[in-house]
Amino acid sequence: MSLLHPFFLFSLLFFAFSFSSAQYNLAPCPLDFEPLLNVTTFDVNASTQCQYVIQGLRLVLATYLQSTGSFLPPINSSESCWDSYQSVVNNFTSNFNIRSDCGFETTWISEGCMNITTRSQFDAVVSQATRADIVASCNQSLENSSPCATCTTSLSNLQAVYLTGSSVGNLTDCTAYPSIYAAGFANYLGPTDPGTAKCLFNLNFASGGSGNKRRGVVIVVVVVVCSVVFLAVIGGVWVFYRKRRESRSVKREIVNIEMGLESISGSTTLIKFTIDEIRQATRNFTRDNIIGRGGYGNVYKGVLKDGSEVAFKRFKNCSAAGDTNFAHEVEVIASVRHVNLVALRGYCTATTPLEGHQRIIVCDLMKNGSLHDHLFGSTEKLSWPLRQKIALGTARGLAYLHSGAQPGIIHRDIKASNILLDEKFEPKVADFGLAKFTPEGMTHLSTRVAGTMGYVAPDGKKALMVIGENQPSLVTDWAWSLVRKGRAIDVVDNSMPELGSPEVMEKYVLVAVLCSHPQLYARPAMDQVVKILETDLPVPSIPERPISIVAEMDDIERSVSSSDMGCISSSAGYQSFTFEGQQHSD
């Protein structure tokens, strides 16, 4: 009897557990993934598929909220919902598993923000005035950029004030709830409206067939009429156009560029300075006023008539054709406002007989120079509190460019010389000459190689030399070799003043190594980086790095372990890095 009793109890518990586990995943999925079959943007490279999966799920959750008043499906339907979603994704791409390839846990689809699962719970957390503001901003067609920007700005404010909980696998976290709520209730057109889907979820929907047919008929008629007219006059126009083609083409280009530059001042509050005003402020561009040089030209300090100190970025080798790049940088800087982005005061476009085309950008003067000046110059080393402030501020600025700006902006040339420091050592991300808009709001962008070689992370990083071993290596591989051995703190220069706590400094090292990981999937989004640095969130596990193209990992580890001090410098002598380590016993 004494043996039967525990056996019976074990059997009862086992069958009860098996029954509950089966029930956990047997419920049918209440979500409708059919609308995603009309999405036209799933057929992309593998690096962005997980982003589309996340945005597609949020759109489906918005339709579910609209019909049921619930943000999330029941947790016992998680498995069936993933299966339903997978079947839809299979229509767009093969050999792609949502959960395994993107690292999503099964239960994440039913886990949300701050235990908010229904609309009534959401209304209890968010004030009525804020919800009314969301309706006023988002209850319109969001197809154009202006109403979309108004709506997303209101949603960002809501999330920052009321939804401050931690994320759950970056699926249905607090950053997603405002868009889901706005699409489900605030916008009268609903989540599947093409304008709403593109603005709030960065998804493109195929337009209706009847409209396409009507537009097709119109296009055919226009093409036929234009062809007839063209054939009627081509004989006489051809000779005239051949003689005047070059001169008219140049004039047309100049007119278009000037119109583009004039449109900048018409759409912003920027000041258009005259060349004489800038000459007076810089003492006729005297060399004593030069505070920076680069491939683009020189940067001068100066004083305006009102007594304010500013910086003038003067482009060299300008031409009429180069005005397009100048207009692009002005457009990018003028479109964003953030405490960690350089503020643009104005610009100057002029043509003089002696100097030709003049293109100048006017910004606030950063009295502490650039981060490069402090890291590689002769000034006193920055303390840990200042380095921590600069790292966090730079991350915030980049997170705003990627996620806060509409459309998103990828800088593509982040380096120490492009991080300016004001009088309080608040970092300002500068130099947007290579920036690229991302209309679909993706956090990753595949383009041709751009920027300064040696800084394009991670594949284009400068090959550095470990002087002690005379072996080429990457500084990121050197840091990773220490992290792998549990010596992350040795990456920190222990000669800097006011060292922080080892736990905090190690956290920053781990985040830096994770952000420079060669594999795209392993690198976190910038808004996630900010959350990790600002809160007690743990740093995600760092996947193993592939073998470096420049050096074997064993060579790097041997270089680190064989000497107490490793001095790393660029092969071109551009700059040098010195790392002072401590002896550790195994």
Task: Describe the model.
There is one protein chain. The protein has 586 residues and is an alpha+beta fold. The chain folds into 4 domains: 34-201, no CATH class; 271-364, Phosphorylase Kinase, domain 1 (2-Layer Sandwich); 371-442, Transferase(Phosphotransferase), domain 1 (Orthogonal Bundle); 460-580, no CATH class. Helix content is 45%, strand content 12%. The chain is built from 18 helices and 16 strands. It has a 6-stranded mixed β-sheet with strand order 1-5-6-4-3-2, sandwiched between helices. Strands 14-13-15-16 form a 4-stranded antiparallel β-sheet. β11 (455-456) and β12 form a beta hairpin. It is globular, with a radius of gyration of 29 Å. The protein starts with a helix and ends in a 6-residue tail after the last strand. The model is unreliable at 1-24, 208-215, 453-472 and 549-586 (pLDDT under 50).
Instruction: Count every beta strand, where a strand is a DSSP E run of 2 or more residues.
Output: 16
Provide the structure class.
Answer: alpha+beta
- Please give the alpha-carbon distance between the first and last residues: 56 Å
Shape, please?
globular
Major β-sheet, in short?
6 strands, mixed
